[in-house]
Write a structure and sequence with these properties.
There is one protein chain. The protein is an alpha+beta fold and 157 residues long. The chain has one domain: Heat Shock Protein 90 (2-Layer Sandwich), CATH 3.30.565. The protein is built from 4 helices and 5 strands. It has a 5-stranded antiparallel sheet, with helices on one face. Strand 2 and strand 3 form a beta hairpin. It is globular.
Length: 157
């Protein structure tokens, strides 16, 4: 069974950030398509289009999980969006992070009977297609958590 990771990102030099992009997502499942489109255009801008398939799969799973598990049924439309996608690019790493208003830790299913289910494998896919992943609660005036996935790029070991 996969254990959810509660940890911050591995050390990344903020001065080495090559680019960052962020988008607010509506609290509807159509947001997954928008997140994929945003990811494609951002990766193309950063000349990382060759990583689109893996990154888009992970982004789709993280956004779907936020919409399915982190939002109450009566989530109001607030001035600050409830779900937000962040993409950050360093010279040798790419991070995708999804912020949501829930404080609940991500929970991965891992038993064999779950593998045959039509849903519930999202975090297994995140773990399989990214180099590492984790989550952390937001601090200060922000409420909720961030679930992130890291991808090594350009031959980093």
């Amino acid at each position: 069974m996969l254990e959810p990771l509660k940890r911050g990102l591995p050390p990344l030099d903020p001065a080495a950030v090559s680019g960052s992009a962020s988008c607010a997502l509506p609290t509807r499942f159509e947001a997954v398509r928008g997140a994929r489109q945003f990811t494609r255009s951002t990766l193309d801008t950063w000349e990382l289009g060759d990583r689109f398939d893996d990154v888009a799969l992970v982004v789709s799973e993280l956004v779907t999980n936020a919409l399915r598990h982190a939002l109450p049924d009566d989530t109001p439309q607030e001035p600050e969006p409830a779900v937000r996608l962040h993409l950050m690019h360093w010279t040798s790493r790419l991070v995708c992070a999804v912020r949501d208003p829930s404080h609940d830790r991500p929970a991965a299913r891992g038993t064999e009977e779950d593998f045959a289910a039509e849903s519930g494998r999202g975090l297994f896919l995140v773990e399989s297609f990214s180099d590492s992943w984790g989550w952390h609660p937001l601090a200060g005036a922000l409420h909720g958590k961030v679930v992130w996935a890291l991808f090594r790029i350009r031959g980093e070991q």
